[in-house]
Amino acid sequence: MDAKTQLDQFHKISDEQWDRYRQLLPKSDDTSLVVLKGHLIIEEMLYAIAQEHCADPESLVKAKLTFSQLLYVVRAVVKLPIGDSCWEAINLLNGIRNSLIHNLEPKELESRLHALQGMCELKDEPLPPKYVKPTEPARIAESCICFIIGQLQVIGIVAAFIERNLQFPKE
Fold first, then answer.
1. Could you tell me the pTM of the whole model?
2. Is residue 170 part of a domain?
3. Residue 138 to residue 26: CA distance in whole angstroms
4. Domain range holding 62?
C-alpha cells in the first residue's frame, strides 16, 4: 500500500476516534468528571500508541502498567522529535487526576489547571480570532484534554506510519 493511501486511512481513523472522544468527554461543570474521563481517554490513546510498536500487544495490556509507567514507555518508543511539553502536560494531568481521586478537597486545583493550560497553549501560533480562552475549571480541563488528544492523535498517526514502513534488513 502506498504512503498516501496509508495516511488517508490513518486520518479517517483519527477523525472517527476524535468524534468518539468528543462524545465520551462530558460537557459538564464537574471538573472531577471531566478530568477523570479525559484521563481515561488519554490512557487509551497511550496504550494504542505503545501497542503499535509491540510484536505482542496483548502482553503490554497484561503488564498492567500504571499510567505513569505507560507514559514513559510511550515516550521511550516514539521515534519523533517532539517537544517535552505534551509529555509534561500529560504528566501534570495525571497528577491532577491523582489529587482528585485521593482527596475530597484537592489543594491548588485551580492553580494546577492554569499551569496545565499554560502548557497546552501553542506559543508560536496565533489563536483563531473568535477563540475565547476558558476561565472556568471544567472548561480549562476540557480544553487541555482536547489539546492533548490532538497532540496524541498526530503522534499516533506518524508513529504508526513510521513503524509500519520500517525496512528491516534481510538476513
1. 0.88
2. no
3. 10
4. 29-164
